[in-house]
Model the fold of this input.
Amino acid sequence: MRTEWLRSRSVQGGLLGVLLVVVLAGWALSSPPGSSPDDGFHLTSIWCAEGFDGEFCFENPGSADPAVALVPLRVLELSCYQYDGSRSASCLEEDDRLVSDRLSPKDSNVTGARPNLYYRAMHVFADADVLAAGNRIRAANILVVTLMLLATALVATDRVRTAFVLTTLVVGVPLGLFLVTSVNTAAWGLAGLVTLWANGVTAMTHPDRRRRLVAGLLAVIGVVLAMGSRTEAVVHVALTLGVLGILWWYSAGRPTPLLDLTGGRRTLARGVLVAGLVAAAGLALALAPDSASLDTALRDIGNGYDRMAARGIGDPLLAILFEVPVLWTGAFGLNWGLGALDTPIPSIATVPLMAAFVILLVRGLTGATRPRTLAASLVLVVLVLFPTFALLRSALIVYEGLQPRQFMAMLFVLLGIALLRLPGEEPLRLGRGTRRMLLIALGVGHTVAHLVNIRRYVSGLLPGHLGEFRHVSFASEIEWWWSGLPSPNVVWAVTSLAFVAAVWLTLRVAFPDDAATDRAEPAAARA
Done:
């Protein structure tokens, strides 16, 4: 009776939305603008999104590289604390840091080598006050992410909503939360790719035609966001379309809202599906930048293999393949830090987060039907091959170039398909013990990761084993923080409690009938 008010869908959605905003705001406050990977490039590309305008971006006549532009030095100074984990963000408060009129050369996207939609959209916030501009860009990203997540959850069926929300909470900590609250293009990339699979399934299975149309529109918006911000989004979109194609193919002939087909109509539907996927793949390749074209990629892979062999790497393919899983676990902070890889996450956070992911993945795929098994298998294959060939193309091994943020979107699809229950399948059930374990694991993982991220910029990290800066202390002096806001400890506590409440609410709402199951299982065991 005490939680009777939670049975209202409007109350559930509103409360979860408020908690989501609190968590995202807490992560945005935990670091200053310019703290995410490659932010020097991204900030320069935002300021130069309209080309050499003579105000924010200038041509660099002394450079042989046309991608190098001149931007105000104060733009690059937003990242003055990067690469040194012991250094706080106090350098931002030095008098001459963010007001200098000097120009500095920096590589950018002025040649259009990468998608430019994100940079053009964020260029409207470019301003002489670079700190305020950076905060506005982050606020805009939080708005985009919040709207996409809430809209996707609201239009989905109950089963899709359960899989989507639970997946987002599990896979999004800590790297996802850090990126979507930054100025990095990954904010738009994740907003589009994380929601694409769920909106695609909703568009196929929801009994309400209007919601199917809304979900389809959201899927299109997600593709635009992803393709307009990230080069590798071509592969992610193609993978998600392949997963949806498998689910659709096996849905033909079953009594689903969209495909109540038999006989010749079923064959026709499958033919239309194949033609649509081919057309979508062709369109994606046509819209992709030159660096993502198939012929260029194949040529670069061959050249990269030869270059790696020349470095003395006996078998470049195996050298990469054996270490690829590290690029998956990096989403949970294992062996890969946040920021410019200068904020290592302790094992007490990464181990529970990875355990929650693995347990849910195994639990979700246990007894999976053929379409979900094939779809999950496709994701696993691409999770291996995509990083492998991407590194071969660059003639690099793991840790030398690419990072988990470029592949983590696939983990959302993998766990989402595992937790999804299609029409005709038994609903997903989690026992009371499993739910408690998830609440503790996710709560501990998020709380520790958020604390380390705050303290890295507020006070700097303390040296630990072999001189690495990876430890925090509440006794450390506060060297940087936002003026007029509560203390870092208050922000950390509120954000942590909001995340735990979001996980508890999700589990409580998604599995309301499991309490009876929990009571029945011991009785059955005794019998």
